[in-house]
């Protein structure tokens, strides 16, 4: 067990759902917490900020790392942990490297953040992944369509380089469909707050060949380049477009052991190709007829509140496992509990203002549902994908079998009714 004098540096974006879980994990391990964040004080209603707080710009990794190193020069930092999002993972990796702590190379974390860099590395290593091409969002649509017809084919998928959680991701069926999709993506990416992420990469988008098949998500942890699978999730809802909003995750996977082994091997090969070697990894793969195809590999843990369905050993959370690993404490014997579990991310059905939620009590009363979190305040404006970046909340279920858990989540969701009214015009 770490001593009280030890510190864990959490690199925590203001949009993270996982703040409370990581802070709780550090408290249980008896380590002092230092938070580096671009936080908004409005989040204080959800959790208490530690006194050791460093305000940084996560979109400026160099300046963020320099400020962190200056502010922690007298602290005994034993581990640096990203607590959500690719920018945080990059800052965490560069900080850990500067402190001489185990971490991913900065180049690997950069590749995990930038989808084009990731695709290039995977292609170079021969890891199964979609065909791809890079474009400027203001490129002539006719030129884009010509290249897509020649190199990618239809249907295809277009996506921003830097955004996550399926934001901006759209299926394009043919050249006629491309004009509307590219215009929609252009309007999103040219917003000033998104351009602030990266003036160059923020204006680019990737076009990829559409990969048919069911999708799975792998949650794992890397040590010296070797992957340990913590959980494999089925995504039973088809993700075929026009947008790619994720809903239900269920574990353990119902796919044959041979398929699960292939998913694990492909994920490890992808991590190796990208240079990832240490810490949490979250991967999304499609089960194509020829085998697993890598959609994305992130150098962080699963987002949202989804990690709440994972428990290890005697009840440790995923965040506790990640912090223990970062501190060099043993985790190899911590297996996920055997009971089936699942989460449903509640989609936003329409743009507007959330005026109310009905059916909460009925949904909670469904046998097998152990929690329901509405994460959007009443009165707040909500925006669906592909422009939006959040969910209305999360449903959590457990049961004796994955099929039972999936049915429970669907039954509870049918009880919910979200009242969304048109937003008031801005003056």
Task: Describe the protein's architecture and organization.
This protein has 427 residues and is α+β, with helices and mostly antiparallel strands. It is 30% helix and 28% strand. The chain has twelve helices and 21 strands. The protein has helices spanning 19-29, 61-71, 86-98, 106-113, 115-125, 141-151, 175-189, 192-195, 257-274, 318-326, 360-364, 402-414, and strands at 7-12, 32-37, 53-55, 77-82, 132-136, 156-160, 170-172, 204-209, 214-223, 226-235, 248-251, 279-288, 291-298, 311-312, 316-317, 340-346, 352-358, 369-374, 381-382, 393-399, 417-421. The strands form six sheets. Strands 3-2-1-4 form a four-stranded parallel β-sheet, with helices on both faces. Helix 6 (141-151) packs across helix 7 (175-189). The longest helix has 18 residues, at 257-274. It is globular. The model has no long low-confidence stretch (mean pLDDT 92).
How much helix, percentage-wise, in residues? 25-40%
Please tally the β strands and state the result. Answer: 21
What is the straight-line distance between the termini? Answer: 56 Å
Give the integer mean of the pLDDT values: 92
Q: Residue ranges: pLDDT <50 for 5 or more in a row?
A: none
Helix count, DSSP H or I runs of 4 or more residues: 12
The largest sheet, given as strand count, sense and whether it forms a barrel, is: 4 strands, parallel
Strand content: 25-35%
Shape: globular
Coarse structural class: alpha+beta
Radius of gyration: 21 Å
Q: How do the strands line up in the largest sheet?
A: 3-2-1-4
């Amino acid at each position: 067990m770490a001593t009280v004098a030890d510190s864990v540096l959490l690199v925590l974006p203001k949009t993270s759902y996982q703040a409370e879980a990581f802070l709780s994990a550090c408290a249980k391990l008896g380590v002092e917490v230092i938070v580096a964040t671009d936080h908004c004080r409005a989040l204080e209603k959800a959790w208490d900020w530690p006194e050791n707080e460093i305000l940084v710009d996560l979109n400026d990794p160099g300046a963020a790392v320099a400020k962190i190193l200056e502010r922690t020069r007298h602290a005994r930092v034993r581990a640096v942990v990203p607590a959500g999002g690719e920018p945080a993972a990059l800052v965490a990796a560069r900080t850990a490297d500067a402190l001489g702590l185990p971490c991913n190379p900065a180049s690997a974390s950069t590749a995990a953040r930038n989808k084009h860099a990731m695709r290039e590395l995977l292609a170079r290593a021969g890891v199964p992944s979609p065909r791809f091409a890079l474009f400027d969002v203001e490129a002539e649509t006719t030129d884009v369509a010509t290249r897509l017809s020649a190199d990618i084919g239809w249907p295809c998928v277009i996506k921003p380089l830097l955004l996550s959680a399926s934001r901006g991701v759209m299926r394009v069926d043919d050249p006629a469909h491309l004009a509307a999709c590219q215009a929609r993506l252009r309007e999103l990416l040219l917003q000033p707050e998104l351009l602030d992420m990266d003036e160059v990469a923020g204006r680019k988008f990737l076009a990829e060949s559409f990969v048919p098949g069911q999708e799975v998500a792998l949650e794992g942890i890397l040590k010296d380049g070797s992957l340990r699978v913590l959980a494999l999730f089925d995504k039973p809802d088809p993700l075929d477009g026009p947008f790619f909003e994720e809903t239900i995750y269920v574990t353990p996977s119902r796919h044959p052991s041979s398929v699960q082994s292939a998913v694990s091997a492909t994920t490890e090969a992808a991590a190796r190709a990208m240079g990832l070697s240490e810490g949490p990894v979250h991967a999304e793969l499609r089960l194509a007829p020829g085998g697993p195809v890598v959609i994305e590999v992130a150098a962080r843990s699963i987002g949202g509140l989804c990690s709440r369905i994972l428990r290890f050993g005697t009840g440790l959370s995923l965040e506790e496992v990640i912090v223990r690993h970062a501190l060099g404490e043993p985790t190899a014997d911590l297996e996920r509990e055997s009971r089936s579990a699942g989460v449903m991310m509640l989609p936003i059905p329409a743009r507007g203002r959330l005026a109310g939620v009905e059916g909460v009590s009925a949904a909670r009363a469904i046998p097998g549902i152990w929690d329901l979190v509405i994460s959007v305040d009443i009165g707040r404006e909500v925006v669906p994908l592909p422009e939006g970046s959040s969910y209305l909340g999360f449903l959590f279920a457990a049961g004796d079998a994955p099929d039972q858990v999936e049915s429970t989540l669907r039954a509870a969701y049918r009880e919910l009714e979200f009242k969304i009214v048109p937003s008031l015009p801005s003056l």
